[in-house]
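2024-03-11 09:14:02 INFO queue: dequeued item Probable transcriptional regulatory protein SY83_17135, len=241
2024-03-11 09:14:02 INFO validating residues
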Amino acid sequence: MGRKWNNIKEKKASKDKNTSRVYAKFGIEIYVAAKKGEPNPESNQALKVVLERAKTYNVPKAIIDRALDKAKGSSDQNYVELRYEGFGPSGSMVIVDALTDNVNRTAPDVRSAFNKSGGNMGVSGSVNYMFDETAVIGLEGKSADNVMEILLEADVDVRDILEEDEAVIVYAEPDQFHAVQDALKTAGVEEFTIAEITMLAQNFVTIPEDAQAQFDKLIDALEDLEDVQQVYHNVEFDDED
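2024-03-11 09:14:37 INFO prediction written
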């Protein structure tokens, strides 16, 4: 099961390559979540999820505050949430989540990224059914048994608790995201290495070495797009160390 955490780590590492781009995308995501309801995470659960994830990417407070202030103000900028599905080399499957203020721009850009990198876009539902929406919370400084005891005492249901690479990873239903975090915070956990609701593949593929560069090119091309917020896939990385 370690492959789940390795794929999430790989995604985080790829985002760390361009922090300014990551911060800009978080700014949009925070703004959109805040506009959906109150710009207060205590009363807006969607916003709270985004802000918890932003912490794990070290998004500066100034960027968060700017996005929240924009949502509180008179800005009428509207974003549409879109999901695209497609296929990469060697049986790889890809989901692309976007936030856009120009729907006529986004689909052609995503399709072009697929086509130029040896992939192709699929129809809605062609890939999504092979992934599960999952809350993932990672922490250090406690054992898996300790975390399980904490969550049992708090009456929080989870799918799995794994201990990998000196970290404990909790996998849960999306609606248990805050319950898991709250229970762990009450038990003294002050920082999470990962805290997000993501799309995890039900089954993974390992692509041949000669196709790895092409796959990497596809993911990079998609993540480089202005409107793309998240890219998920079912490729297992070999760096199990």
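2024-03-11 09:14:37 INFO annotate: The chain has a mean pLDDT of 90.
2024-03-11 09:14:38 INFO item closed
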